[in-house]
């Protein structure tokens, strides 16, 4: 079992974009769910996914932001980036809520989420001229960041 | 508000596929207790072309009307059927009320006429005693049919609409496909306003819109409906520019579950989208 070629190619495009344009490190691509099973019997992910570490923190929950403003520590967060999940997509694709839910359900978080927080991923949308735009998608109703 | 006596149901008039609430008490009740503010659409009778600072009635979205019906705090009446039926079926109580209005009106007209005549008489016979002018007051006056209703009665009890009887036919509400998302957000205590301003189905406020900016622009989708990525990019980009999240969501349809599951607030899954600024 493997993903169709266009999905694999899409993933490698985004991989290179993150590595070369955005200076991400520890990039990995994932095709199957993490498990100790042999390669042949692992479950295939709904789509190929990437993980990586951005050079600085990409997302700060508004509640954390408020706490940090109180302690005047807003600049220290930049220095502690978090691993992000990335789902590569092409602009001409269509998706459904069901597919999005399946992608979220297949994500395994390394550590349990804090109270009231949801999973998030970065949706990387690729266009033919190799433009890639990134959007955060949260698995739930998450209030917007204050900026 | 004391909870000792149950509040009468809110009456929603359905006229030309619009859902209207005319009672200011109902409007305040909905805003305080059911996070529904909706849009004022009424003009002053003297200024029918008014387009700002509108007043009663408020026009509810179909989703709002449906949510209130499902919460059992309101009922929807089709006004185009209701009015003719009620006029045709006027009972003795209503006739009594109309007669009372006519009596009070004609009395008022009579006393006005008497005053005018007395004044005329006073000007005509200057020099005569005012007692002469007042004699007309006691003269018998023939009662005429009133030209117009000039009187305001102290009670309007007879005009009050009774709560829906069992025989009364209630109008149905045609909700759009995004209803499950609306009901879900409404259940969580958010205030929703029409989404025209930000190109979505609903603007979602975390509290009363007079106190808060909206947090989300929400658009409902079917569970298996194709969504163009460009729509998502457009919504996400616009939302970030106006400090909002773009919220998409819909009712989860799993294989074992039947489509006629009526509880719309359950089983809704929503996703918030923000530009990642990279």
Shape of chain B: elongated
The strand order across the widest sheet of chain B is 3-4-2-1-5
> Overall pLDDT of chain A, averaged?
85
User: Mean pLDDT score of chain B, rounded?
Assistant: 81
Q: How would a crystallographer describe the biggest sheet of chain A?
A: 5 strands, mixed
Report the strand count of chain B: 11
Q: So what's the CATH class of chain A?
A: Alpha Beta
How far apart are the first and last residues' alpha carbons of chain A, in Å? Answer: 44 Å
Tell me about the largest β-sheet of chain B: 5 strands, mixed
Structural class of chain A: alpha+beta
Distance between the termini of chain B: 51 Å
Structural class of chain B: alpha+beta
CATH class annotation of the domain at 176-278 in chain B: Alpha Beta
CATH architecture of the domain at 176-278 in chain B: 3-Layer(aba) Sandwich
Number of domains of chain A: 1
Order of helices and strands of chain B: EEHEEHEHHHHEEEEHEE
Describe this entry's structure for a reader.
The complex is a heterodimer of chains A (147) and B (278). A 5-stranded mixed β-sheet of chain A has the order 1-2-3-5-6, with helices on both faces. With 147 residues, chain A is of the alpha+beta class. In chain A, strand 5 and strand 6 form a beta hairpin. Chain A is built from 3 helices and 6 strands. With 278 residues, chain B is of the alpha+beta class. Among the domains of chain B are: 68 residues; 103 residues, Trna Endonuclease, Chain: A, domain 1 (3-Layer(aba) Sandwich). Helices cover 32% and strands 20% of the residues of chain B. The radius of gyration of chain B is 28 Å and the shape is elongated. The model of chain B has no long low-confidence stretch (mean pLDDT 81). The chains are: A alpha+beta (147), B alpha+beta (278). At the A-B interface, strand 4, helix 3, strand 5 and strand 6 of A face strand 9, helix 7, strand 10 and strand 11 of B.
């Amino acid at each position: 079992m493997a993903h169709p070629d266009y999905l694999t190619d899409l993933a490698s495009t985004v991989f290179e974009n993150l590595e070369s344009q955005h200076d991400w490190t520890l990039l990995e691509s994932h095709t199957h769910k993490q498990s100790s099973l042999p390669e042949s019997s692992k479950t295939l992910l709904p789509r190929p996914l990437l993980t990586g570490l951005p050079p600085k923190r990409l997302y700060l929950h508004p509640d954390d932001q408020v706490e940090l403003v109180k302690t005047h520590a807003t600049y220290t967060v930049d220095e502690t980036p978090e691993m992000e999940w990335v789902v590569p997509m092409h602009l001409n694709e269509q998706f459904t809520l069901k597919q999005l839910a399946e992608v979220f359900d297949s994500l395994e978080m390394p550590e349990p989420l804090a109270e009231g927080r949801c999973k998030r991923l970065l949706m990387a949308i690729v266009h033919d001229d190799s433009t890639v735009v990134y959007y955060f998608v949260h698995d739930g109703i998450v209030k917007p960041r204050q900026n | 508000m004391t909870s000792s006596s149950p509040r009468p149901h809110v009456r929603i008039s359905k006229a030309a596929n619009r859902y209207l609430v005319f009672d200011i008490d109902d409007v305040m009740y909905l805003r305080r207790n059911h996070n529904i503010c909706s849009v004022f659409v009424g003009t002053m009778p003297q200024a029918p072309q008014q387009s700002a600072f509108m007043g009663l009635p408020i026009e509810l979205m179909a989703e709002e009307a449906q949510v209130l019906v499902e919460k059992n705090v309101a009922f929807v009446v089709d006004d185009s059927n209701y009015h003719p039926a009620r006029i045709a079926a006027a009972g003795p109580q209503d006739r009594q009320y109309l007669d009372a209005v006519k009596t009070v009106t004609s009395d008022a007209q009579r006393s006005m006429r008497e005053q005018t005549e007395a004044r005329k008489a006073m000007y005509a016979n200057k020099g005569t005693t005012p007692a002469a002018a007042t004699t007309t007051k006691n003269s018998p006056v023939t009662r005429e049919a009133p030209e117009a209703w000039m009187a305001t009665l102290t009670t309007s009890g007879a005009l009050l609409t009774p709560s829906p009887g069992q025989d009364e036919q209630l109008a149905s509400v045609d909700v759009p496909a995004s209803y499950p998302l609306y009901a879900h957000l409404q259940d969580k205590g958010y205030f929703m306003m029409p989404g025209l301003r930000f190109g979505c189905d609903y603007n979602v406020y975390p509290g009363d819109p007079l106190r808060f900016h909206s947090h989300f622009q929400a658009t409902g989708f079917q569970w298996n409906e194709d969504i163009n990525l460009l729509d998502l990019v457009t919504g996400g980009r616009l939302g970030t520019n106006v400090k909002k999240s773009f919220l998409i969501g819909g009712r989860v349809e799993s294989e074992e579950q039947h489509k006629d599951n009526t509880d719309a607030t359950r089983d809704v899954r929503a996703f918030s989208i923000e530009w990642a600024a990279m």
